[in-house]
Amino acid sequence: MRRLKTVAVVGVGLIGGSFALALRRAGGVATIVGADRDAAALERATALGVIDTAAESAADAARGADLVFISVPVRQIPTVLHDVALAIDPTAVITDAGSTKEEVVRRAREEMRDRFPRFVPGHPIAGRETSGVESATVELFRGARVVLTPCEETDADAVDLARTCWEAVGARVALTTARQHDEIFASVSHLPHLLAFALVSELGSRDNASELFSFAAGGFRDFTRIAGSSPEMWRDIALQNRDALLAELERYEGRLAVFRELIDKGDGPALERLMREARSARHAWLSGSKRSPSSE
Ligand SMILES: NC(=O)C1=CN([C@@H]2O[C@H](COP(=O)(O)OP(=O)(O)OC[C@H]3O[C@@H](n4cnc5c(N)ncnc54)[C@H](O)[C@@H]3O)[C@@H](O)[C@H]2O)C=CC1
Ligand SMILES: O=C(O)C(=O)Cc1ccc(O)cc1
Question: Where does the signal peptide begin and end (predicted)?
């Protein structure tokens, strides 16, 4: 890829920090400017060499940048887009990493006005349950998929630049609509995170919670790892993808009711059949046979 002169990262946490580290190592950028509402995080990002300079605001970081990468919680994105849109050069490209897309795009259109065609909505499908720049790693996006959800108005050269950057850091890019994106991730990401938070919330609220947790084993650890994720980030995702998430919850409740009834009736064969089917589906997913060829 052509080497960009300046990239601005707004929200220098796990995702913004990892993008900065990876793009620098790929030789894709000369200077990285960071902006963050948390001055201490920005200082740590500078000390760790994740960014070269710290800006006072998103607008200051964006001024003169070739690319602006926005990696703040999804309900913070519209304000940042508003500020950045007023500051960027007409040829600059803005992209984001938000885990939801339809509401981000709707608000982007309102906030950015004539700069909206320069915005490439994006979402890297890689991360972890720890937050902050200290958790950032240069390899986070290697082999990961990234979904871009451009609109009719989005400039083709802007999409090309976002794609080129993601490919430079080792990711594979897929294009979908924002609606498709939100429906897919409601099922495989937002629902499981909600279930993990809800389970730990339920057990943790009991009088004997510490006794219960003291007996928990690997299965509990695996199932609840993602309940260690950022509450602010997941609050925003749940509220922004409300309709798709509520639909997924309803389907899940329906399936749970089936399991419940089989246990209630003592129907071992039917219970085992459902569990066998679930295990096979998981094995098939893990061995890669569920990869969709159309999105490669
Ligand atoms: N954590 C994960 O595994 C993944 C997260 N994402 C998305 O990436 C975005 C960032 O997530 P993380 O890096 O995990 O969060 P993080 O908490 O590690 O970093 C977010 C940073 O944004 C800063 N920030 C918040 N509001 C701000 C504002 N208005 N202006 C400037 N800075 C602000 C925070 O101080 C923090 O340093 C979110 O939209 C999230 O949905 C996408 C893929 C994976
Ligand atoms: O912690 C994990 O395993 C995740 O699932 C990370 C993750 C969180 C949010 C996203 O939008 C994408 C990936």
Answer: none
